[in-house]
Amino acid sequence: xxATMFAALLANTLLGLPLFLTLIVTALVGFVxxxxxxxxxxxxxxxxxxxxxxxxxxxxxFILAGNLMNAVGMTERLMRVARLFVGHLRGGIGHVNxxxxxxxxxxxxxxxxxxxxxxxxxxxxxxxxxxxxxxxAGLTAGSSLIGPIIPPxxxxxxxxxxxxxSVGQLFLGGxxxxxxxxxxxxxxxxxxxxxxxxxxxxxxxxxxxVGAALRGALPALIAPFIIVAGIVLGLVTxxxxxxxxVLYVALCGLALKALSPAAFWRAxxxxxxxxxxxxxxxxxxSVISWELAYAQxxxxxxxxxxxxxxxxxxxxxMLSAITFVTGMFMEEVSALMLLSPVFTPVALAAGIDxxxxxxxxxxxxxxxxxxxxxxxxxxxxxxxxxxDITVLxxxxxxxxxxxxxxLLLLIVFPGLITxxxxxxx
Length: 425
Description:
Blueprint: H1 2-14, H2 19-34, H3 39-51, H4 58-71, H5 74-86, H6 92-105, H7 111-128, H8 133-143, H9 154-163, H10 167-173, H11 175-195, H12 207-232, H13 238-255, H14 261-294, H15 297-305, H16 312-329, H17 332-349, H18 354-368, H19 376-385, H20 389-395, H21 397-412, H22 415-424
Helix pairs in contact: 1-2, 2-14, 3-14, 4-13, 4-14, 5-6, 5-12, 6-7, 6-8, 6-11, 7-8, 7-19, 8-19, 9-17, 9-18, 10-22, 11-21, 12-13, 14-17, 15-17, 16-17, 16-18, 17-18, 18-21
């Protein structure tokens, strides 16, 4: 049954069928083996049951908060601060790209949103300062991986809903890995800038200039603390935190006289479009997850890995390899929804912390976003840089290897993930 469902999923994907239809066909194939008569009752029950989670309501709220930030000009204010902090270094505009992703990740939790927003601003600026278009697009795609790792994270919310892991602990667990990713990409950019002979294009900023930029960006810099502090301190749920962030950004936009009714409506429409696509995938993925549970797929998978259960590192390496390859060929939300319930029992049996597992799976899924042939952030970076996608397919591999090196570091030293949640928990 499981093999036939996988074959149907792979065949429809290769045929270019839209993802939602591909998943529906896969679910219907599963019902052929279980009981075709159950389709009318179990498919809608499991579909809407998978959406019946209060924490999932946080997803459209965080997406809306990020869209509103772009609408009211907070993105440009954050870029100004990033430029003052690191713009004076060799290859400064490349460092701005990475630091800007760190700032942006504190609100929207989406790699695609970061790649789109920052790419349109920074790729032209990087090419003007001597970077090749291919490297500028690659760095934009690579730095966008920070978005789903540093809280808030849409992927971590989905993982939490599937495994009953604390969202607050997952958010805290992503802080150090996200900063390590940023450090790795900044190191890569510094090496490239030196080899390419790029010179410094700015002097150290004046203290008054830094102060003015920080005051201008203060509303945007406060938003991540509203999100994380409220959840970690137990004052609000992730969904309530998302609602508070939307309200805060909207009020800042009104106070700055930067949020028009038309801009607000465009942000709502874009949020609705993206959220609808995510929730449709969540619903049908829940049906397939129920079918896999019915077929005892998690138990059988655990049995296959039982000989390696004494080595948590080896188990994490194997789970990472499966997740990474799956993410290369499947939309990331559906891959996360399908794999998390299967992997979690195996990881727990191996003594792996569920927070560490969640961050490592999230990072694997995220790296797949910049990996050919279906990495969404690759296509976004190519589009905003007006670069042929085949060129980016050839030049993206150093950025993938940089991210994978951070992933391997976290697998070998999972304490880098769990240290902050345990310290503050």
